[in-house]
Amino acid sequence: MSASESAIAKDANDSGLAAKNPAKRSRALLIVGGIFALAALAWFLLWLFVLSTRETTDNAYVGGYQVALSSQVAGTVTAIMTDDTQRVEAGQVLVKLDGTDADVRLRQTSSALAQAVREVRQQTETVTGADATVAAREVDLRKAQADLKRHLPLVAAQAESPEVVQHMRDSVAQAQAALDQAKAQAKASRAAVEGTDIANNPSVLQARANFRAAWVAAQRNTIVAPVSGYVAQRSVQLGSSIVPGQQLLTIVPLHDLWVDANFKENQLRHIRIGQPVKISTDIYGGSAEYHGKVIGLGAGTGSVFSLLPAQNATGNWIKVVQRVPVRIALDNDELDKHPLRIGLSADVTVDITNDKGPLLASAPQQPPAETAVYDKVASQADAEAEKIIRANLGSSADTSN
User: Fold this and answer.
1) Where does the chain cross the membrane (predicted)?
2) Which domains does the chain have, with CATH numbers?
3) What is the pTM of this model?
4) Of 159, 173, 211, 324, which has the fewest CB atoms closer than 10 Å, so is most exposed?
5) Cα 89–chain centre separation
């Protein structure tokens, strides 16, 4: 075949390929377009049924109460009954202080209370004696008046000397003065005890208050746990001299924990109080999932409450997306099965399907934490004071005046 014939055949082949390539190119474009369309549809369905119904963040941390235990009185540490990582129960003795000075003060106030009761008893008896004196002086006055009345007719009949009658008049005046003095003394004696019984006399109440304060101070030399939990940050040492308010250790209750999830401000649009939440942590390698609910949203962003808040009005301003803490309550039953520690990081997923709930808390809630440990101290002090008062009332059946 000549060179011209070869060139003609090559041109014919190229023309055939050129006719076939557009069809292949169209099919390839259709396939690629279909793939992108399916991907877009899958992404839309994922957003519609999954991503649009939840908000997630890994900027979340487990929180809990940190009860800092301190002494209410000054003293020297004589015993430490617990240590870090140990569990303590509410009311359990944790630290003891030297109570010598407090015991001396308690004995002094105890005897002062007893003495006050006895003094009021004595004042009550003095009132009785003063009333008897008044009655005696009234008898003396009536007798003097009767004697004068009998002798006045004798003076008129000149059967009695005027000097005798004048002497009788002086006796009547003296008896009247003695009666007035006895009434004044009885009134003064009655003023100290009138209108109250012995136990409620102001002197007894004052002594009782002093005893109560001394008794409470003596009990405070024994420092007890206000709540149940685990000990952390123990700094108290044996023999240390401590002052009121000095932190000794920290108790962390690991039962009532929560999670503070810091969501970006553009994620808060559909987050509401009461929405269900799923939480996972790294401590169990993802094998434990916790369930909770949103109980509140922070009143401000984290930067506002920082030690050195940003001053955005300086002029050198760059917009930074802020985060707001969202408080999430955990299920205590799940916490009992898989205990957590405060400060652990967490991944949080909030179900925002129902976004009709409140954005802010509408009413005050019950106290988040309280203890009745210290209530017993006051009641025990009152019981001890009652014992002292009853022991010094004597055999008086009626202590009222």
Assistant:
1) 28-50
2) 67-98+221-252 (2.40.50.100), 101-218+377-391 (1.10.287), 258-351 (2.40.30)
3) 0.70
4) 159
5) 17
3-state secondary structure (DSSP) of residue 151: helix
Sheet holding 67-70, edge to edge: 67-70, 247-252, 229-232, 87-88
Phi-psi region of 378 (alpha: psi -120 to 50; beta: other; left: phi over 0): alpha
Burial classification of residue 101, based on how many CB atoms lie within 10 Å of its CB (0-12 exposed, 13-18 middle, 19 or more buried): middle
In this structure, the chain runs to a length of 401
- Phi first, then psi, for residue 37 (nearest 5°) are -65, -45
Measure Cα distances from 199 to 140, 380, 381 in Å: 37, 17, 15
The tokens describing 152, both together, are 């006045």
317: three-class secondary structure by DSSP: coil
Look up residue 25 and give its two tokens: 């190119």
Q: How far is residue 261 from each of residues 52, 145, 294, 346, 348, measured CA to CA in Å?
A: 19, 98, 10, 8, 7
Question: Using one digit for the tens of pLDDT, what is the confidence trace for 159-212?
Answer: 566 676 677 777 778 877 877 776 776 666 666 666 678 888 888 889 999 999
User: Which two structure tokens, joined as six digits, stand for 357?
Assistant: 């709930």
Walk across the sheet containing 241-242 and list its strands: 222-224, 93-97, 75-80, 241-242
Q: List C-alpha distances in Å: 270 to 49, 116, 262, 265, 353.
A: 15, 69, 15, 11, 8
